[in-house]
Amino acid sequence: MKPAATKRPDAATRRAQLLDAADAVFITHGVNAPLELVVERAGVGRATLYRQFPDREAILLALLERSTELLQAQALAVQERPDAFFALLGYLSERIVRSPALSDYWRSSSLVDPRFAQVRKRVWSTLEPALAQAQRAGLVRAEVQADDISLLIGMLGAALRGTSDAERRRLARQALEVIRRGLRPDAATDAASRG
């Protein structure tokens, strides 16, 4: 009787394994960590990594694409809620806190690298319907535009100034609360009456 052959993982499985490893390494050591750490964590050879991802930027782009897919799945899960926009901002806030190095990379590199334009566009197109829904529900001022989404995400990114995970989470909650209060339809009236 022949021993059972060990089934090799397919390319998609190997790719997901490498992305999981890269995500873990970048969370711990930052996006400039040696790729050898990714190889070690994934338990693969260096050639396997480079067959899937020719360079560090390809890994980072794939991680950002995967994060965008997760955001899109989250948007589907909350799409019936009037406050879906705030639920999605909360989800993004958690992602920023969980993966500060990747978030920092997103902020800096995606502005100059044309490969990131499509990913950025997908993020905005995921959030825009939820923003419109929140406006129809009276949760967000009518003058807030889709172009403001980038600014709101930047405000959430301020949580990265925290020096510990607990501090970053506290700052993220605080940023979310400031955003929620600032976007309320009555916020403009409140500000005018104080001024």
From TrEMBL:
Matching InterPro entries: Homeodomain-like_sf, HTH-type_TetR-like_transc_reg, HTH_TetR, Tet_transcr_reg_TetR-rel_C_sf, TetR_SbtR-like_C
Residue ranges crossing the lipid bilayer per the database entry: none
Keywords attached to this entry: DNA-binding
Keyword DNA-binding part of the UniProt annotation: yes
Family matches, as Gene3D superfamilies: Tetracycline Repressor, domain 2
GO molecular function term, any single one: DNA-binding transcription factor activity
Parts forming coiled coils: none
Protein name per UniProt: TetR/AcrR family transcriptional regulator
Organism: Comamonas antarctica
Origin organism lineage: Bacteria, Pseudomonadati, Pseudomonadota, Betaproteobacteria, Burkholderiales
